[in-house]
């Protein structure tokens, strides 16, 4: 498992609150910031064949707006692992400004068993 993963991305039209319908302004949508945080958290994991992880908790603040074209850096750091449960600290930056931060929790599951329960 990687302790920390850093992800770099650019705010595109598809990532805007006005496009995602999470608001009316042309700024980075909170759901997109959260999705990038989850993506970075997933990238920390080195799972066995047949395993995946599912998000089970997310508690973040979105503290500053980012415009179309902004360069965003997302960081996920493993803070604790208890069996199949992994806790992370997640942060989003535009330059040196922290635009969002919080905690995320994922659970490692067997993909086949998980989907069997979902679609029974």
Automatic annotation (TrEMBL):
> Which InterPro entries does its entry note?
FlK, FlK-like_dom, HotDog_dom_sf
Task: Tell me the residue numbers annotated for binding CoA.
Answer: 55
GO molecular function terms listed in the Swiss-Prot or TrEMBL record: acyltransferase activity
| Residues annotated for substrate binding in this entry | 55, 106
- Which Gene3D superfamilies does this one have? Hotdog Thioesterase
Residue span, Fluoroacetyl-CoA-specific thioesterase-like domain: 11-112
Q: What is this protein called?
A: Dihydrolipoamide acyltransferase
What is the organism field in this record?
Absicoccus porci
């Amino acid at each position: 498992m990687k302790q920390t993963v850093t992800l770099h991305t650019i705010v595109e039209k598809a990532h805007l609150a006005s496009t995602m319908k999470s608001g009316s302004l042309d700024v980075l949508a909170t759901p997109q910031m959260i999705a990038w945080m989850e993506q970075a958290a997933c990238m920390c994991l080195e799972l066995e064949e047949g395993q995946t992880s599912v998000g089970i908790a997310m508690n973040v603040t979105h503290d500053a707006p980012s415009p179309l074209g902004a360069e965003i850096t997302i960081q996920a750091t493993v803070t604790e692992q208890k069996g199949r449960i992994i806790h992370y600290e997640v942060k989003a930056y535009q330059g040196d400004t922290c635009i969002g931060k919080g905690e995320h929790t994922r659970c490692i599951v067997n993909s086949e068993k998980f989907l069997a329960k979902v679609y029974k």
